[in-house]
Amino acid sequence: PDHAKAALDRSTIDYGPGQVAIVDGTSDGMRAAIAAHCAAHDGYRHGLLDGAPLASAAANVTAAAAVTGPGRRFVQMWGQRAVVEGEVVSSEVSVQLSAVVAGKIASSDLRYGPHQPPMGRWGQLDTVLRLVPEWTEAERQTLTDAQVNTAIRRFGVLKLYDYNTLASATADPADVQANGSREIMRILALGDPITEEYVGSVTDGLGTVEGNLDTALSRMLQEELEAGALHTGTDAAGNLVPPYTVDVVATVTEPLAARLDADLTVTPAPFNRAVNLRLTKAAPRQEG
Fold it and tell me: Does the pLDDT of residue 15 top 70, yes or no?
């Protein structure tokens, strides 16, 4: 775990958002290291964990329980291995299922966006020969209930059949489905460089800089809404709740601590639950 943590520490936020996994990192310590890395880079890392090779359903449930909890909306666990073709003709190689999942996530993100989970017909495993093990339906349901993701063979086709995180199902139920969490990653990834463009901007006291940044961020979020990634819900009184809001504030009263804060409230589909995000950039300048 120590060398894994050291390697993960070198993957700073400067690399941008993305998935993270460790080859053969199937021990409790390795899973904990990935989960801690994702927590430290909240919103910028999506951790893919794996159960130990040939672990029973019960052992996978126990391993997941050691990680499951608050703040785990960016961590997933997979409970099988995938057998794929090797480099030598007619040879086969067994790999962590997360390695295949990482590819499916990247492909699905590119074609549909992260709000569409790569499962079911969107998660067909065309390069996988078979799964080890292929769980019984009862075992698979036990794993699903424990938020351990699995793949299945349905009508002769192998496909991913879960897409859950290890967030607490009782404390943070809206964070259990990973597509909502990964849409938050996308919004941060899109919003951060937009906000970066305003570092060093001169504020005029009339809200011009703040208004321009508000407009740029609102345009980005409107595009996410039109793509089906955000949810327009209703409150207890039946009133429509907007899928996003933007509030930009420049603080220049302390020159050495001057900053620009962009507070976003977004509701990823399909949940009627708002998530608060803040993008902060230093050093706006006040017009003298």
Answer: yes
